[in-house]
Amino acid sequence: MKTISRLRYFIYLSILIVGCTTGKNALQKGDYDASVIKAVDRLRNSPKNAEALQVLPTAYQLAIDAHLRKIDEAKLSSDVLRWETVLYAYQQINRLSDEINSSPAALSVISNPQKYVKEVEDTKYKAAEVRYTLGVNLLNENNRLSAKKAYYSFEKAQQLYPNYKGLKEKIEDAYWAAVLKVVVQPVLVNSSYYKLSNQYFQDQIDQFMANYQKNKFVMFYSEQQATKQKIVPDQVLSLNFDDFIVGQTYVKERVEKLKKDSVVIGESRANGKVYGTVRATLSVYDKKVSSSGLLDLTITDWQTRKLVKRQKLPGTFVWQDSWASFTGDERALTTQQLKMAKRKEVLPPPPAALFVEFTKPIYAQLVEEVSSFYNRY
User: Fold this and answer.
1) What is the domain range of residue 25?
2) N or C: which end of the chain has fewer CB within 10 A?
């Protein structure tokens, strides 16, 4: 009984698989394009498959009728982008034609599949013409948001009909009308001593701004670039250190009384080795040199002089060192304690280097804040 049940299961599964691969199931569900493609694919592997040969002509005719109906309906509609709907339908018909032409067995039942080559080219031109006109109208609204929409409309027209007259110039015009131009002022620090260190921070910012690509509709300029290229900014980004402290030093001492029992402290003729307790006093020094600063980030609208964004970005860097000294018997110390006691105090990095270090977390925050803010444009 189990053998018969398994046999029935495999027969049912085989019928189901054959139905899927011949396109019969897709035909019954009304997915005529898929039905045609599956039937043709089946005939490539099995040219005499009876079910595929039966399904193909029915599915093909239903698919053609459906696409031609969509074309007629789209042409009569008021949808401004109707030619793109028409184009897609023609392209689907041509795809089915290509599929059938790739299979001799499929051509035996559909000898002359329909193909609309001229219609596709004509429709591409009409669709591109509509997108071009939409782009021009949007660009004439003279605002950045409309210019951005115009750019995408021109870009779509280029995809549809690359050689459309005057399209490249319009894409260029729309792009520059859509770009938000931001002038980044130099970072100000009220100390000539840290001028060189601040330059490192400035170079990092300049590099980030120059390589910024997360939003192609935002361009950053230095003040020199803006002056040279005669750029009128939309916004001005300013960075100033409100306050900073470099090299604030803290030293903490902790004293430990140490002892160790059963240590060999001598030797006698009568008793051999003599064991006893050894003691030592260990002084451990922990030194921290803290440097921190607060950067003021402001973004201002150039025309209205209104503040668009303000953010305070803190940064801290702590340099640490530990060493020790002891009095008494070194045998009372562990290996690690003895190693620390042999270390000497290390000098901290120079103030200029400490300045650079505390600006690193500030830079990371700055990148995050700027990227997040300008992604919305």
Assistant:
1) 2-115
2) N
